[in-house]
Amino acid sequence: MRLDFPLVGPGGEPIDLWRTFVSHGVAELPPMRVDEEARLFEVTVSLPASRPRTVRIASGRPGFGQVTILGRPVGARTAGETMKAVAHILRLDEDLSAFYERAAADPDLSWVTAGAGRMIRSQTVFEEVVKSICTTNCAWGATIRMVTALVEHLGASAPGAPATGPAGRAFPTPEAMAGAGLGFYRDVARAGYRGAYLLQLAESVAEGRVDLESLGRAGPEEISDEEVSARLQALPGVGPYAAAHTMMMLGRYSPLILDSWTRPTYARLRRRKEVKDSAILRRFRRYGRYAGLAFWLFLTRDWVEAPPPA
DNA sequence: CGTCCAGGTCTAC
DNA sequence: GGTAGACCTGGACGC
Predict the structure, then answer these.
(1) pTM score of the predicted model
(2) Residue A309: what pLDDT?
(3) Do the domains at A2-94 and A125-249 have one common CATH topology?
(4) Which of A19, A99, A122, A155 could form a cystine bridge with A127, CB 3.0-4.6 A?
(5) Quick one: how far is CA A58 from the chain centroid?
(6) Cβ contact A238:A132 at 8 Å
(7) Nucleotide at minimal C1' distance from the A196 CA
(8) Strands A32-35 and A40-45: what pairing?
(9) In Å, what is the separation between the CA of A216 and the C1' of B11?
(10) A268 pairs with which residues across the strands?
(11) How sure is the predictor about A274, in pLDDT bands with cuts at 50, 70 and 90?
(12) How far is residue A108's CA from residue A302's CA, in Å, rounded to a whole number?
């Protein structure tokens, strides 16, 4: 089944679909996949009333994106739920026009107004936190290994999914992750010391002691960015970096992600050997609640090649 | 082969 | 409140 959706945000701002697909490395982590060659994005989504489904998203007729639901045909109900999940993941409901107004006045970032800044997002806050923990203190390859193992061995499969491998599987529920023993995290995911963090996190969410999803739903007037940051950092294995990373995925852009990749990358782009955190913060202070997003886009501009001159 | 460290965090001073 | 050291893993380096 195929469904079209307009590439226009709530504020009338344009949406650059490809830039969204490669907005962040999480798009390369199961249950997501980016196909650079075919210029498409796939993700297996969990659905409330049925088995997971894998969807393929690509550009469609001019001005539209197109969603293809793979596997056997779906009914109207499932199609609707799937599209809702896609809209969430692509952040189609987010109004970026206020951010674009500020970026337009900044020569280094005016390019974003063509449709950048929609950070691809996971279905749940739980999934964001787990992935963030899996990026800490390790190389990217290790992050892929850990997340792939979680999805492959603990995720529910969509109809028609291959018997083995991560393809066609949704991200595991907290219950599924809580049910895996510490041995799984050590020997299969090879998560090292993070295994205990992941298990603890999954248990506390599965047992209802921690409510992560409300952090995703609440607006800044209900729960401040500072409060969200504090609650995230209260979780096992989540410190300043992982909290800032998770918050960007929640659309809480006030904190900047300052880590061993962003710092040198910023310095390189500014043609400096080193730049102090305070100087970086000052540079992006003008963006207010969008500071972290502005910083991220500044760093990742070259992730998408500039369009050829007309 | 040992050492370092990668998109950090926790604990103990 | 600020700062060393330890911590799993595995790939990149220097010897």
Answers:
(1) 0.96
(2) 60
(3) no
(4) A122
(5) 18
(6) yes
(7) C8
(8) antiparallel
(9) 30
(10) none
(11) confident
(12) 12
Nearest nucleotide to A190, CA against C1' atoms = C9
Q: Which amino acid is at A1?
A: M
Domain positions in chain A are 2-94, 125-249, 262-303
Confidence of residue A308 (pLDDT cuts 50, 70, 90): low
Which chain B nucleotides are covered by protein, judged by CB under 7 A?
5-10
Res. A25: pLDDT tops 60: yes
CB of residue A259 closer than 7 A to nucleic acid strand B? yes
Structurally, at CATH architecture level, domain A2-94 sits in: 2-Layer Sandwich (3.30)
Q: Which CATH number fits domain A125-249: 1.10.340.30, 3.30.420.40, 2.40.10.270, 3.10.310.30?
A: 1.10.340.30
Within window 126-145 on A, which residues have Cβ closer than 7 Å to strand B?
135-140, 142
Does the C-beta of A137 come within 7 A of strand C? yes
